[in-house]
Amino acid sequence: MNIYGERMSDWNSDEERYETIADWAQDIVMGCSSVALEGYAFSASGRVFNIAENTGILKYKLYRLGIPVTVVPPTEVKKFATGKGNADKNQMYEAFVAETGCHLKMLLTPKRADSVSPVSDIVDSYYICKHMYEAIRKTKED
User: Residue 108 in contact with residue 118, Cβ under 8 Å?
Assistant: First the structure.
């Protein structure tokens, strides 16, 4: 499995950070016919408004490029990965390891000891991508 990361530059404001992240993502998906993003978790806590602002900027930039965005609810991603729409991060990780053989926790160290990112973010992204791939494949078969 090839996993690639990039260190983001420092920023002076949340707005600058959101634009930098959205520009980075936009560059990554250029040439794609569609993009899938995970929907908002209604039970989320923490910096949910910051995530929403950042996502809104990204969606707007993709809209301006004419790249359709499919939003996949978190429960759908979890059910796709594990068979359970309420799977927790450990169950998602276990499904990922069983499927890929890649032990991300041995490869990556989170910034904070109490954080599960970026491991859980990569696992979620993998299943969102796979979910979109399967949806496109099924559409082509029909």
Answer: yes
